[in-house]
């Protein structure tokens, strides 16, 4: 005890660390399960760093050809690259290597999945609104980085599956007009596949991309602390405070424990479930493609887009240039979709004209149009994502693959609209229900017979705490078209007013104090 | 010399230059005759057995197959001709339960085998008797004792695009599919390669030699007998089953943990 005190004092006198610890230790974090999804992503990233470091000790990214001499019988004597050989050695010869490979890969899948769910939570609760737009952008970039890290990572073993994936990327790059072939040669150093790509991807995968990711995570965390965490509406929670537990000791202990739970779940999965059995696939050879060749799940939506685009869109123009629209349209479509995801907060801020700070997380039903837009986006993504497994859907549900493709094409084009309307109506209905409950109470289940013989069910009023959750939300109204300083109505104004009307023309106003008062008989 | 003359006469007879020839003739006649007799009997028995087998096969065919393939296997609108299909095709189609088909569909499905091996052999003999076709291979080509590495490479190049690198199967067009290969009898794997059933191409002996076919069988037996070292293989279907698994059980499990961690103690 005396030593601990002395040591703490020693450090503090030389670093003034206590100021920072005091400030950070008193930082309050609200408690809600959905606020821990980002933590899952963060912790799986730490697991990825640890297991990845182990893998770098043994992986050799060279594409020099050697003959396999390891212990996996069905590959013995087969020529392959050093990269694939060392990946096999990690799996079969190095103690704990296979476990580490599987930990690394499962953690990577979990990392991107947790980011996806975390983004959905932030989107549907409106937690991207001012002052958190920039942190949304940082988080969005992290999502893109995660996909890039994943792709460069699963390309490294140089087995058949990873080579097939690279071939698709090569095809997408080559579809870019004018510059495509140049970019492809620049990246691969030769006609595909060449002998440079694995070492180059390796440098990106273990140096540049992780460095950018760590820097972005740092910014993400700092902005989180600066902006404070959002909280759901509840008694005592306002836009100006944060109600929850302080970092020290409660939250830190919980978060630390949660890290080990995440680590444990990943190791448990990696111990019992195979992931990417590279030994099945054999060394990369440009000719074979296995049935059931898919990218990892987070690239699936891109693969699905390529599967869904109708055929015969490609042609050669009179100047002799090939226009591969069958690849270009999905490519551009996906980039537009990603850009829309990244820029949505600015779009919504412009439409609503809302410049206030928001620290209360909205319930999705209280922003029906946004929730509906989100549902439409999720449907679009999910249809593309499902299309990446069109062949497995066909075999496992005994359908014809053409039927599956057609159904998913329809779902991709019309599904978002259907999802939009259904979601919006459900949100409005739920708001109406909330309003009804706030004003008239809830059905108590108690049936009373009146002296005249009539039966009624007694409604009971909510207590003030519960009612507050139902009535405290922001109300928006469509903005009016107004002339500017010069007395002109700009096109910008008109578009904005139209969008604003689209957002807010159907709305359920929150219950006002007057309504509540008049309801109290 | 006189008392010895009969003896010498006998000796002279025995030593006559013709005696050896005569003996040879007798010996050859005896052994050859006996052999000829024996072999003639054997041939007669085999022919009788084959004829009986073919006859039995013909009856089975007429009862179970002819409604689609025609009484003389000449084919109808409902089923192709089997003239020249060979014994191996019958062994594959009937031995895996695909024939007789339960219903018309995108392709004949595997179902419990309807006949005993003797009955299948009989039908195979009947079909083989119609016209020459692929025969059931010698045991050494389906022993599965070849080179698994060569087999694996041949499998990746020739088979994996439909059957998946781990033989898990895959989709074809119009509701057809390439079946999974786990648990398939080596003779049926061989038969499928040689006869090209349904949508499968024929891999003739010029394309894949019988030894190479045995290598492929060796590889398939290897992956069947040596399950994934990394744990349960999730059907060997690749990233799709892995993605589903991590979303449902990985992230799903962790969401359950977050709910548990933030639950208020009541």
Explain what this protein looks like in three dimensions.
The complex is a heterodimer of chains A (521) and B (266). Chain A has helices spanning 2-15, 17-25, 37-58, 82-92, 97-124, 133-155, 160-174, 180-188, 197-227, 247-272, 278-281, 300-308, 325-352, 368-387, 390-396, 401-440, 464-471, 491-504, 513-519, and strands at 28-29, 65-67, 79-81, 231-232, 245-246, 315-316, 322-323, 360-361, 442-449, 455-460. Helices cover 62% and strands 6% of the residues of chain A. Chain A has three domains: 1-30, no CATH class; 33-231 and 253-312, Up-down Bundle (Cytochrome Bc1 Complex, Chain C); 423-519, no CATH class. Chain B has 266 residues and is mainly α. Chain B has a domain at 19-136: Cytochrome Bc1 Complex, Chain D, domain 2 (Orthogonal Bundle), CATH 1.10.760. In chain B, 57% of the residues lie in helices and 2% in strands. Chain B is built from ten helices and two strands; from the N terminus they run αααααααββααα. Chain B has helices spanning 5-14, 17-64, 66-69, 86-95, 117-130, 148-158, 160-163, 186-195, 210-225, 239-262; strands spanning 170-171, 177-178. Chain B has a two-stranded antiparallel ribbon. In chain B, a hairpin with a 5-residue loop joins strand 1 and strand 2 (177-178). In chain B, helix 2 (17-64) crosses helix 5 (117-130), helix 4 runs antiparallel to helix 5 (117-130) and helix 6 crosses helix 9. The mean pLDDT of chain B is 86. At the A-B interface, helix 5, helix 10, helix 15 and helix 16 of A face helix 6, helix 7, strand 1, strand 2 and helix 9 of B.
